[in-house]
Amino acid sequence: QKEGTLAGYWSGVPCLAEHGKLIPQLLWKKFIRYTNIPITKDLVKWFPVAPILRKMAGLVPVKNTSKKLEYLGYYYFDRWAAKILKRNPNKISTIVAYENASLEIFKASKELGITTILDAASIHHKSQDKLYSYEESHHYHKKVIEYKNKEIALADHIFTASEFARQTYIDAGVDESRVQTIGLGVDTELFKPPED
After folding, report:
1. I want to staple 165 with a disulfide (CB 3.0 to 4.6 A). Which of 9, 20, 134, 160 is the partner?
2. How far is CA 8 from the centre of its chain?
3. Phi, psi at residue 151, to the nearest 5°?
């Protein structure tokens, strides 16, 4: 934003103080764990379907149903963001989208000649499956993997949070020139050593 290159910030999680006014305080304190970010209000578009469905999914005792509800939130957010992009294509040269919620916006981006960056919050799904079991049914897990593979295929670049994560993408066959590591920062106002 400081450089004048940010055309928009489309988020499912609340990022402005005014978002807190739209949710009852009891629910906000219990479920919302995000802080405001210093961003111009006009750049922000907020569609909280994914975090709401993810929270609801956590209340469902049947894991397969819970995971379907969680992924449904990502899908709705992705479709919403793709519609916004199609209405405002001239202002945008690059889209950075989160894994599990980027297939539709990447498809729209490709039609418009917009560069796509996949924000991969975790390791590649092949490595995930080797390290731990998944909660959804095998049938539904295959659908999730197909979705992720399509996102990866449409991404011009993939950002990972560690060199380890980057290597899992390369080991899975993604061209290493497409995968970059951008280490996570920290909000020192939230995370700091205790005062003596």
Report:
1. 160
2. 15
3. -60, -45
